[in-house]
Amino acid sequence: MILITGATGLNGTALVLEFMKRKEPVRVLVRDPKEATKFDNSLVEVFVGDMQEAETLTDTLKGVEKVALISSADPEKMAVTQESFIDAAKVAGVRHIIKLSCLNADIHSPARFIRMHGEIEKHLEDSGMAWTHIRPTHFMQNYLLNAPTIAAQNAFYYPMGHNAVAPIDVHDIAKVFYETLTAAGHENKVYELSGPEAPTMNDIASHLSKTLDRSIRYVDVSPEEYRRQLVSFGMPEGLADAINELYDERRKGTESKVLLATHGLFNVKPTTFAEFLGQNIEAFGGAQMK
Question: How many domains is the chain built from?
Fold first, then answer.
């Protein structure tokens, strides 16, 4: 049996949908069962529990051999959440955990999310279970968060200067995840992956302008201004700080390299940013493509 944690989040949902598309049964762990009603209950077995509370996971982990380890990005709780789950999985006899990590995961990183992913990876490696780390760059879907300002102001705002990044579509990650979960030979390996190109924010503005058929501009803001904007939108200050730390690293070029070896290994066609925009044109306020 295969279990997916964090199944109703961005990456978890993409992975569950990949199993559904392939008509493969899978078990999922959720905190709110109402969020799982979007899944096909003839293929998806839903269990309710808390990753930090082992006593709620007994039935969920019964008979599970492999786990896709995903959780929400909480700057205060992500490490303890995933490490607690790893401990419970080991006691339950899980054989192999495939972790959604991040590119450049490192216990010494100044960025807390990158640092926590490194800490979780080490905890998993030290557990004695087989492990696999999937390390993508940041997600194309994150740019959907800019839809309100693109619609209202024809602009989007980031503290990225003219630096390049290589974002990836979460559906490409899900395809790689599926293969590592359903086939042997991926134990104790690290898979890095990115999108197929490394645009600057001005390049992304050009893609948006072409897709939406109107001029969209990128506005370079300071990290301090970006943090103020995030907090003004209702984001907790700790999360805003953690996100700014990621942008501090991205401005150093840490996500600017195109990494397609993993796509080739798993025969996954990488989604371009233009393709992603075309698939989500209505979300950005454009007319549906014919």
Answer: 1
- In order of 23, 200, 201, 230, the CA distances from 159 in angstroms are 42, 12, 10, 12
Two structure tokens written together for 98: 């495939």
* Interval 23-36: pLDDT, tens: 999 999 998 888 88
| 14 occurs within a structural domain | yes
Phi, psi of 83 (to 5 degrees): -70, -35
Q: How would you write the chain as a 3-class SS string? A: CEEECCCCCHHHHHHHHHHHHCCCCEEEEECCHHHHHHCCCCCEEEEECCCCCHHHCHHHHCCCCEEEECCCCCCCCHHHHHHHHHHHHHHHCCCEEEEECCCCCCCCCCCHHHHHHHHHHHHHHHCCCEEEEEEECCEHHHHHHHHHHHHHHCEEEECCCCCECCCECHHHHHHHHHHHHHCCCCCCEEEEECCCCCCEHHHHHHHHHHHHCCCCEEEECCHHHHHHHHHHCCCCHHHHHHHHHHHHHHCCCCCCCCCCHHHHHCCCCCCCHHHHHHHCCCCCCCCCCC
At residue 229's C-alpha, the angle toward residues 212 and 220, to 5°, is 60
113 near 245, Cβ under 8 Å? yes
User: What is the model's pTM?
Assistant: 0.93
Is residue 283 included in any domain, yes or no? no
Residue 12, domain extent: 2-140+168-194+256-270
Q: Does residue 249 belong to any structural domain of this protein? A: no
CA pair distance 261, 267, nearest whole angstrom: 10
Which CATH number belongs to the domain containing residue 183 in this structure?
Answer: 3.40.50.720
Going by pLDDT thresholds of 50, 70 and 90, the confidence category of residue 252 is very high
